[in-house]
Structures are given as C-alpha cells and as structure tokens.
Amino acid sequence: MTDQSTRTTADAAARDGAEKPEPADRMSVTAHVLELPDGPLSYTAHTGTTVLREEPSGDGYQRAEAYAEVFSVSYVASGRGDQRPVVFAFNGGPGASTVWLHLGLFGPRRVDSGDAGALTPPPFGLLDNHETLLREADLVMVDAMTTGYSRPAPGAKPDRHHGFAEDRDLIASFVVDWLSRHERWHSPLFLAGESYGTTRASAVAGRLTDRYYVVPSGIALISPVLDFGTVFFTPGNDAPYLHYLPTYAAIAHAHGKHEGRLLQDVVDEAEAFAEQQYPQLLAQGLRLGEEEKRAAAETIGSLIGVDPEWVERVDLRVEHMAFLAELQRDRGLVTGRIDGRFSAPAGDGIGAQMETDPSIDQLAPAYTAGINQYLRTELEFSSDVVYEIMSSRVHPWSYKDFENRSVEVASDLARVLRKSPSTRVFVAHGYHDAATPFHASEHVLAHLAVPRETYEQRIRVEDYEAGHMMYCHEPSRLALSAHLAQWVRGDD
C-alpha cells in the first residue's frame, strides 16, 4: 500500500516535470520438473514483460527509446545446449492472447476444459501435458499488444501497434530481441500461429527474412487464414460461399444430419460439389432458371442439413452466421462458430444470425481461470492490470497496407519458401471450424507462387475431426501434438 506522503511526492515530481524512471523488464524465473513416462524433463520458466526499444527517427541520432512492454512465458529445457530448436507461438484475433495454444496444446501444463457435450465444471484445474512440444524444442509463448499483459511503454500509444504491419514488426522485433538476450542465435527457429496468428506467423516470417535475414526453419499454421477474400462475406464475392460449404456439411454431420455416413465421405462429397457444380451455379446469377435453382437448393440443403426452401430464399448463398442460427433452429439451439460441435439454447428463436458463440462461451472460463491461477502460483508472476484473454481494445485494427485489395499473406509465405530452401510448413485444419474453413486454406495453399515440388514436399496438411481449437478434442490433441513433434524434428 502506498502512503499519503509517497503519493504527494510523486504528484509533485510529475507537476515539476521530473523525469520518469525508465521502464524495466519484470521477469520471474522458476525451476520445474515435468514427470514424463520416459523420465523427468527439467526446465526453467521465464515469465514476465520485456521492454523493447527502438532508435528514434529524425535528423540527429538518439539512443534507443522504450516503446513496448511485451509479455511472454519462455520454457527452456535444462542442459540441452544453445542449439536446441526454439518455437515462438502466438494466437490471433486480433485481440486474442496466447493462452489457447499455451495451456491448450504447447505448454508443459494444460487446461482441463473438457469437450463439447462433456465440459469440465468449475472449479477448473490444470493437468501435466505429457505431449508438450517442450519435449522437442524450447517454447516462447508471446502475447501481442494489448493482449495478455502486453502493453505500450508508459507514455506510448497502444493503438500504434493495433494494425497488420505494426503488429508484424513488433513480434519480429521481439523474436530478434529474445534470440540476443538468451544467446540462441544458433538455434533453429520455428514460428507457430493459430487463426489470425497464422496471418501473423506468415507476415512475421517474411519480416524476419527480409529485414533481419533470420530464416525460420518451420512455420506451423493452425486453423489458418491466409487470404481474407476467401472467408469474408462481402458483396460480389462468391468465394466464401464455396469455401464454407464443406465445413457446413461437416458440422451438419456432427449434429446427426448425415446419419449412418462417415464424416470423410460427407466432406468429400461437399468438396466435390463446391469445386465443380457450385461455382457454375452461383456464376449464373439471375440467368439461373427456377427449376435449376430449386434443384440446386435441394442438393445444398441435403449436404448442409437445412431446409432447401431456406437455401432458395437466401439465393443459394449461405452466410456462416446465418447457417449457425439455422442448422438447429428446430431444436431451439444455436451452433458454435469456433467449433461447430458445440451448441447452446437460442436466445432468439427467429434470429437471422447466431447471437453468441457457444464454443467460446463454454471453453473460455476454464482458460481464464487456468492462466490467472497458473501465472500467480506456479510461475510466480502477477501484474496490476488484467490479463486480457480476448480484448476488443485492439479495434479498430488497421489494414492500411491493403487499401483497395484483399488482406493476404500468401505472398509473404511464398516469398519465404522461395528464399529459403529448408523452411517447412505444417498446416492443421479442423473440419468443424466455422471461423477459418479448411477448404479456403486448401485453396490458398494450392495457389501459392512456389514450384510444385515445394508444395508437394515442404507443405504438410493434416485435418482433424474437431474445430478451430482442435486440441480440446482429446484424439485430435494427441494426433496434433505428435504431428507437431515430427514437424520440429524434421521427420514429417
């Protein structure tokens, strides 16, 4: 507690224009042992905020000034040397902290959240993660600006970092700074992102390669979005309707709309329709005859589990938020967007769109409790600000670099692959992910400006029977963890 005399002195100093103290790193270093089936894994956790500095622009040179305090948790295995791989991981949003990858998949401890239809009730807890990627590489879980505990330096404006290019440059600077502070320049470098974090990972990979000549050994894209034009429903753009259709079919299967059929067979049929007949049907517009339109609506309705008359009323163009409200309307339920296997009672039985996302609503409490308890008790770090799990404070998010064109990082990813003959890409899709549909990602990857051999030999794609955060589905978590271990080892 601060006494009155201390506050008075501080106030007087501020009025007199006295210099404020320079911001400093705040770091907690703790030692841990994870008991694994094949023996103990000893590691050190470095938890806290790192001050980043930059050289001011202007006519005369000045010393670097603090501009950001970036929060991260670094896990460094004991006695493994300075050439061990390092994986830098982050989530997306924009506005999402990295708690999801941190406590859901990568870290040595994981949230006990349960899954769709079998949620773990409070009080929530943490479990040892025997499949942690720390077995293969050191880990750096980093939060973007205004997420987690990351904040601007005192006096700096946070919205400076709330944009595509600014966010990219901040994370790239953090990576370079971390390599220097920890003397790990000889370590193979890997980047892993989820959702908008895949947009970030591709852009950061390009920035590191172009600006610093730091080339990632690997890039993991979990639930990727690489070209917003493939997933954003905007007037005149039919691409999202095509790319979302296989996801709709998969979600319909999860809710019993394709009884007796295998999920893969349903997905294959939907993909074939989305790639062959569907583009021609939408391209005809008002030239499409009434009988043809009615037949198309029957086919689409059958594939995605909704009334064909509703499909016809929306002109064969099924927007995802509308679909999630419609699919289980007859049951009084709305369907999850992040993970279409989740459901919740509808607040509005005739709502045109879903009002909230059941999957986030049902999973976020366990992650919120988990990260706040974990940081304070096991990692011995606390702050006087809120750990922002999901923050709307980052908006509006600037895409000024993409004026008059679609936001895309496929060109960044392709450029890194062309420049670096050793960089490998791992891609993870959830069939039930209605936020970043798998077919859109497949389409973008198949159109990268790289040689065919690069596409076939250096890009691995895996699909899982779950949603955006496929690691809340235990079989998918185990499979994804094994695939990521192979990716780091280079035996994929």
From TrEMBL:
Residue ranges with Low complexity bias: 1-12
**Disordered, as annotated region:** 1-26
Please name the Gene3D superfamilies in this protein's record: alpha/beta hydrolase
Q: Which domain of life is it from?
A: Bacteria
Annotated Basic and acidic residues bias: 13-25
InterPro entries, per the entry = AB_hydrolase_fold, Peptidase_S10
Q: Which residues form a coiled coil?
A: none
The entry's protein name is S10 family peptidase
